[in-house]
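Annex B. Sample input.
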Amino acid sequence: MEQAVPDRAWKRRARWLTAATVVTAGLVAFGVYKGTGGGSAAAGSTADGAQPVAIEPFGRSGVNRVVLTEQAAQRLGIQTAPARKELVGRRLRTVIPYSALIYGPNGEAWTYTKLASFTFVRRRVRIGDIDGDKAVTSSGLRPGAQVVTVGGEELFGSEIEFAED
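Annex B, continued. Sample output.
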């Protein structure tokens, strides 16, 4: 008896739609930003008047650096794990947790890496294979890079929302 296997493109679209659906609601619920009329969002201030999210251009890559306050990072529950080398088949490959992947609207794979405390940048990765809860990258990351495994969708939502203003 043959078992139906979901199409990978469908899985990516489903993950993207799920992430896009929860990003705004999650950021509002965590208090990272407060929505304003017309569908746009503005950062809500913390008690000391600081903006919980700052978006800064990052080189010529077209992506931004996302800088959170400590309070915003705690509210989002940001967690990271290191990219590591593992033997896959007969080759050493860089492997990251599958939860670190974020898919863009065109199906491209991204992950956020930690640059410094509460500072993250989105990196494009090429995925060679997905094995359970591991994603085998073929390019885009070096071993040891700290990838965001929890909170990446909220970082993506923050970057895209605030970059449009």
